[in-house]
Amino acid sequence: MTEYKKTALRMAVSRPAKITYVVVGFFLIVIAVIDSIVMPWYVNKPTVSIPNVVGMKEADAITLLKSLNLEPLLGDTRMDKQYPEGSVVGQNPDPLQYVKEGRRVYLTISGGEKLVVIPSFKGSTLRNAKFTLDRIGLHQGAVSYAISTEFPEGIIMSQEPPQGTNTRHNGFVNFMVSAGTSIDSIAVPDLIGKSLTDAQKRLLEKGLSVGTVVYQPSADLLPNTVIEQVPRPLEVVTVEKNVDLIIASPIDKSKSTREN
C-alpha cells in the first residue's frame, strides 16, 4: 500500500471521531453555561406571594399582578350570580403561594348571573302561570283584572315584563287577567293557612261568603286553620259566591287512647 493510501485511510477513520469530539464538546459547553449562568439566575430570581384577586374587576386584577412582575392570562368565562360581570371568579395558582417573578397567573372571569327568558303567559290561567314561574325561578307579581269580551274569566290577557324579556332569577311578572264580561267578577283570595275568623273577614271584604265548612283533624295545624278551599285561590268568580272551606280541628286524643 502506498504512503498516499495509508494517509487517506487514517484521515477517513479519524473524521467520525473528530465530529464526535466536537458534538460532545459543544454539549459540555452548553451544560457549563446553564450551570454557571442560567441556573444561578433562575435560582436567585426574586419570589413573590400571589395576591388574592378574586372579586376584583378584571382590569384591576391585571394591573395588580403586573405590578408584582407576574404575568396575568385570561382563561374561561363562567356564569356566576355572586360576582358581577367582568370580575374575577377564580385564579390559578391560588392566593398566598410563593412563586418566581414572571409566573403566569390564569384568571377566570365572571359572565354575570344567568338570566331567565320570560315566556308568554297570554291565554294561560294564573295557576298554570304560577307553576311555570316556580319552575324557571320567578315569582308572580301584581294581578289586576279587567272586563273582556275576548278572553274568558280567569285567563291572562297580558303580562309585564313582556315575553322574551331577560330578567334575573327571583324576579316578578305582573298579570292582567280577564274578569269576563261582568263587572261583578272577582278573584278568590288565598285563605289557606289563615284562621277561620280571618278567612271570613277576607271573604266579606271581597263580597264573598263562607259556604260549606268541613272539619278535618290535624296534628300539625292550630285548630280553626284553613287547610283547603273551593274555589281555589285566585280563581275568578262572581260576587256573592260561596267559598267552601276545610278547617283543621284538634285530634281526639281520648278516642285514640281507647282505640289503642
SSE layout and pairing:
Blueprint: H1 3-43, E1 47-49, H2 58-67, E2 71-78, E3 88-92, E4 98-100, E5 104-110, E6 116-117, H3 126-136, E7 139-146, E8 156-160, E9 166-167, E10 172-178, E11 185-187, H4 196-205, E12 209-217, E13 226-230, E14 236-238, E15 242-249, H5 253-259
Parallel strand pairs: 2-5, 7-10, 12-15
Antiparallel strand pairs: 1-4, 3-5, 6-9, 8-10, 11-14, 13-15
Please tell me about this protein's structure.
This protein has 260 residues and is of the alpha/beta class. It has four domains: 1-44; 47-110, 2-Layer Sandwich (Trypsin Inhibitor V, Chain A), CATH 3.30.10; 116-183, 2-Layer Sandwich (Trypsin Inhibitor V, Chain A), CATH 3.30.10.20; 187-253, Trypsin Inhibitor V, Chain A, CATH 3.30.10.20. The chain contains five helices and 15 strands. It has helices spanning 3-43, 58-67, 126-136, 196-205, 253-259, and strands spanning 47-49, 71-78, 88-92, 98-100, 104-110, 116-117, 139-146, 156-160, 166-167, 172-178, 185-187, 209-217, 226-230, 236-238, 242-249. The protein has a three-stranded mixed beta sheet with strand order 2-5-3, with helices on one face. Strands 7-10-8 form a three-stranded mixed beta sheet, covered by helices on one side. The protein is elongated, with a radius of gyration of 40 Å.
Computed structural class: alpha/beta
Note poorly predicted spans: none
The whole-angstrom Rg is 40 Å
Number of strands: 15
In sequence order, what are the helices and strands, one letter per element? HEHEEEEEHEEEEEHEEEEH
- Output the CATH topology of the largest domain: Trypsin Inhibitor V, Chain A
Q: The biggest beta sheet, please?
A: 3 strands, mixed
Give the count of structural domains: 4
Distance between the termini: 127 Å
Helix content: 25-40%
The CATH architecture classification of the largest domain is 2-Layer Sandwich
Instruction: Indicate the mean pLDDT.
Output: 83
Q: Order of strands across the biggest sheet? A: 2-5-3
Q: Provide a count of the helices.
A: 5
CATH class of the largest domain: Alpha Beta
Report the portion of residues in β strands: 25-35%
Shape: elongated
